[in-house]
Amino acid sequence: LYTVPVTGGRVRRITPAEGKEGAFSPKGDTIAYTRGPGAWYRKNYRGSSNDDIWLMSADGTNNRRMTTFNGQDHSPMWANDTSLFYVSELFGTANIVRQPTSGVSKPVQITSHKDDAVRRARISKNGEYIVYECGPDLWITSTREGSSPRKLAIE
Residue 69: its pLDDT value, please? Predict the structure, then answer.
Protein backbone atom coordinates (compact mmCIF):
# COMPACT_ATOMS: atom_id res chain seq x y z
CA LEU A 1 0.00 0.00 0.00
CA TYR A 2 1.15 3.52 -0.75
CA THR A 3 0.30 7.07 0.31
CA VAL A 4 0.45 10.25 -1.73
CA PRO A 5 0.17 13.72 -0.16
CA VAL A 6 -3.09 15.46 -1.07
CA THR A 7 -1.06 18.53 -2.03
CA GLY A 8 1.10 16.45 -4.35
CA GLY A 9 4.52 14.96 -3.95
CA ARG A 10 6.21 11.62 -3.88
CA VAL A 11 4.51 8.29 -3.43
CA ARG A 12 5.54 6.51 -0.22
CA ARG A 13 5.14 2.79 0.49
CA ILE A 14 3.61 2.26 3.93
CA THR A 15 3.27 -1.54 4.11
CA PRO A 16 5.80 -4.30 4.03
CA ALA A 17 5.76 -6.44 0.90
CA GLU A 18 2.48 -7.99 -0.18
CA GLY A 19 0.07 -5.44 1.35
CA LYS A 20 -3.30 -4.97 -0.40
CA GLU A 21 -6.98 -4.18 0.25
CA GLY A 22 -6.23 -1.37 2.73
CA ALA A 23 -9.12 0.12 4.72
CA PHE A 24 -8.87 3.14 7.04
CA SER A 25 -10.62 2.94 10.41
CA PRO A 26 -13.46 5.45 10.91
CA LYS A 27 -11.14 7.68 12.99
CA GLY A 28 -8.49 7.41 10.28
CA ASP A 29 -5.68 6.46 12.65
CA THR A 30 -5.45 2.74 11.77
CA ILE A 31 -5.37 0.80 8.51
CA ALA A 32 -6.50 -2.81 8.24
CA TYR A 33 -5.06 -4.62 5.24
CA THR A 34 -4.59 -8.03 3.68
CA ARG A 35 -1.04 -9.30 3.64
CA GLY A 36 0.08 -12.30 1.65
CA PRO A 37 1.24 -13.30 -1.81
CA GLY A 38 -2.11 -14.76 -2.91
CA ALA A 39 -3.30 -13.11 -6.12
CA TRP A 40 -5.68 -15.97 -6.88
CA TYR A 41 -8.27 -18.01 -4.98
CA ARG A 42 -8.66 -21.75 -4.52
CA LYS A 43 -11.25 -23.07 -2.07
CA ASN A 44 -9.74 -24.54 1.12
CA TYR A 45 -6.18 -23.71 0.05
CA ARG A 46 -3.59 -24.14 2.81
CA GLY A 47 -0.01 -23.21 2.11
CA SER A 48 2.59 -20.51 1.68
CA SER A 49 0.25 -18.22 -0.30
CA ASN A 50 -2.28 -17.79 2.53
CA ASP A 51 -3.45 -14.23 3.20
CA ASP A 52 -3.97 -12.76 6.68
CA ILE A 53 -5.40 -9.53 8.08
CA TRP A 54 -2.90 -7.07 9.52
CA LEU A 55 -3.29 -3.71 11.26
CA MET A 56 -0.98 -0.71 11.25
CA SER A 57 -0.96 2.94 12.21
CA ALA A 58 -2.02 5.28 9.40
CA ASP A 59 1.60 6.43 8.93
CA GLY A 60 2.72 2.84 8.20
CA THR A 61 4.27 2.11 11.61
CA ASN A 62 3.25 -0.44 14.23
CA ASN A 63 2.39 -3.31 11.84
CA ARG A 64 0.79 -6.21 13.68
CA ARG A 65 -0.82 -9.42 12.53
CA MET A 66 -4.47 -9.78 13.50
CA THR A 67 -5.35 -13.20 12.05
CA THR A 68 -3.32 -16.40 12.23
CA PHE A 69 -5.70 -18.89 10.61
CA ASN A 70 -3.92 -21.32 8.29
CA GLY A 71 -6.19 -20.43 5.38
CA GLN A 72 -7.50 -17.38 3.56
CA ASP A 73 -8.52 -14.20 5.42
CA HIS A 74 -9.14 -11.09 3.28
CA SER A 75 -11.33 -8.06 2.52
CA PRO A 76 -11.10 -6.15 5.84
CA MET A 77 -14.00 -3.75 6.57
CA TRP A 78 -14.44 -1.42 9.55
CA ALA A 79 -17.87 -1.04 11.18
CA ASN A 80 -16.44 1.10 14.00
CA ASP A 81 -13.01 1.75 15.49
CA THR A 82 -12.95 -1.46 17.55
CA SER A 83 -14.62 -4.05 15.32
CA LEU A 84 -13.49 -5.45 11.99
CA PHE A 85 -15.40 -7.57 9.50
CA TYR A 86 -13.55 -9.69 6.94
CA VAL A 87 -13.97 -12.77 4.75
CA SER A 88 -12.48 -16.00 6.11
CA GLU A 89 -12.49 -19.73 5.45
CA LEU A 90 -12.08 -20.40 9.18
CA PHE A 91 -15.50 -22.09 9.39
CA GLY A 92 -15.24 -23.94 6.04
CA THR A 93 -16.54 -22.08 2.99
CA ALA A 94 -15.47 -18.42 2.77
CA ASN A 95 -17.95 -16.34 4.81
CA ILE A 96 -18.03 -12.98 6.57
CA VAL A 97 -16.77 -12.90 10.17
CA ARG A 98 -16.50 -10.18 12.82
CA GLN A 99 -13.64 -9.80 15.26
CA PRO A 100 -12.64 -7.08 17.74
CA THR A 101 -9.37 -5.44 16.72
CA SER A 102 -8.01 -6.03 20.23
CA GLY A 103 -7.40 -9.63 19.14
CA VAL A 104 -8.63 -10.91 22.50
CA SER A 105 -11.81 -12.53 21.14
CA LYS A 106 -12.08 -15.12 18.39
CA PRO A 107 -13.87 -14.41 15.10
CA VAL A 108 -17.66 -14.77 15.06
CA GLN A 109 -19.30 -16.06 11.88
CA ILE A 110 -21.80 -13.58 10.36
CA THR A 111 -22.84 -15.40 7.18
CA SER A 112 -23.08 -19.16 6.74
CA HIS A 113 -23.12 -19.99 3.04
CA LYS A 114 -22.20 -23.62 2.36
CA ASP A 115 -22.03 -24.16 -1.40
CA ASP A 116 -20.49 -20.94 -2.70
CA ALA A 117 -17.91 -18.60 -1.22
CA VAL A 118 -18.51 -14.95 -0.29
CA ARG A 119 -16.75 -12.66 -2.78
CA ARG A 120 -16.22 -8.90 -3.15
CA ALA A 121 -17.67 -7.99 0.24
CA ARG A 122 -17.98 -4.21 0.84
CA ILE A 123 -19.34 -2.31 3.81
CA SER A 124 -21.54 0.79 3.64
CA LYS A 125 -20.03 4.15 4.59
CA ASN A 126 -22.00 4.24 7.85
CA GLY A 127 -20.89 0.68 8.73
CA GLU A 128 -24.43 -0.67 8.98
CA TYR A 129 -24.59 -3.01 5.96
CA ILE A 130 -22.35 -5.34 3.98
CA VAL A 131 -23.12 -6.21 0.35
CA TYR A 132 -21.38 -9.16 -1.29
CA GLU A 133 -21.51 -11.72 -4.08
CA CYS A 134 -22.25 -15.37 -3.40
CA GLY A 135 -22.83 -17.69 -6.33
CA PRO A 136 -24.53 -15.71 -9.12
CA ASP A 137 -26.37 -13.47 -6.62
CA LEU A 138 -25.90 -10.28 -4.62
CA TRP A 139 -26.59 -10.48 -0.90
CA ILE A 140 -26.90 -7.94 1.91
CA THR A 141 -26.55 -8.31 5.66
CA SER A 142 -26.71 -5.91 8.55
CA THR A 143 -23.68 -5.59 10.81
CA ARG A 144 -25.98 -5.74 13.86
CA GLU A 145 -25.81 -8.91 15.93
CA GLY A 146 -28.43 -11.50 15.11
CA SER A 147 -29.15 -10.21 11.59
CA SER A 148 -29.75 -12.64 8.77
CA PRO A 149 -28.39 -12.12 5.24
CA ARG A 150 -30.88 -11.84 2.42
CA LYS A 151 -30.54 -12.23 -1.32
CA LEU A 152 -31.23 -9.03 -3.24
CA ALA A 153 -34.01 -9.27 -5.80
CA ILE A 154 -32.62 -8.02 -9.10
CA GLU A 155 -34.97 -7.94 -12.08
Answer: 87
